[in-house]
Amino acid sequence: MWLYIAKRVLYAIPIALGVSIICFSLVYLAPGDPIQSLIPPDASDEDIAAIRRLYGFDKPVVFQYFDWLARAVTGDLGTSLQSNRPVLNEVTRAFGNTLMIAVAAVIVAFVLATIFGTLAAFNLGKPVDKVATSISTLGVSIPNYWMGIVLVILFSVQWRLLPATGMGGDGSDGFSWFEWDQARYAILPMVTMAMIPLGVVTRSTRSAVADTLSQDYVQLLRAKGLGEGRVVLHALRNALPQMLAVMGLQLGYLIGGSILIETVFNWPGTGLVMSRAILTRDIPLLQGTILILALSFVAINLIVDLLQTLVDPRIKRS
Description:
Blueprint: H1 2-26, H2 45-55, H3 61-73, H4 87-122, H5 127-141, H6 144-158, H7 180-213, H8 216-223, H9 228-256, H10 259-265, H11 270-280, H12 283-311
Helix pairs in contact: 1-12, 4-5, 4-7, 4-9, 4-11, 4-12, 5-7, 6-7, 6-10, 7-9, 9-12, 10-11, 11-12
Protein name: ABC transporter permease
Transmembrane segments: 9-30, 99-124, 145-162, 182-201, 244-265, 285-307
Family: Belongs to the binding-protein-dependent transport system permease family.
């Protein structure tokens, strides 16, 4: 087991290196000069050259990448061109805010999807199955940003039950799920985030549990008089590896694809930071944000892979 973990970690290193190359290169494909917003209108050629040297844009792109990679390994992702603050501090703070609602959305989606998918698998073709299938279809079909706008119109504008945007009433970015005055700001973005994984995992659970129920050993257990509760546990245990794999991917998608949702709700997470970095052409901030999000996706897949091994001994690792 430990040898397998070591191998998986070693395999992640070249993946992370490839991710760093892509993150660094993609932002240079966009048109425009990244330091244009920093140059005063009356700046001389000497001033422009000095600014380029200050931020390292006077070097060839290859040398810029290796300089950036050497600093990134030590935790130095550079300085934001707009705020003049360390990129790592801004991205870490925003990533924590994104993680708050993404993890909550995944937990809610996982619990509800397990219930809906299991009920559908035990009642194939019946009204319960049709309702669960309809919910999953809506979850994967409706654009999440559109769902967010609808929820804001209903719960914030018309019914005035929940706040529409922000992270706190006083303008602060402090947050706690255990304080209602703060937690209520996260409900709408969390529900919006949970819709897609709810639909995807419901379908996956329904398929996996239904496949387990069709196996001969399940019929034998029932013939021996095993209660339906125990049958459900056996079915879920066999479906759990597949459910974990799908849920891990969905968590990665939520963390990396939160830009639209966080923009709709003005939630100060990585999505909102990346949106502002794109609009202001803040290259260091954009590179750092993309790198952290990509590496988190790699880490999530590694963790899910290890969890699958723990929950299902039949999965042999070497």
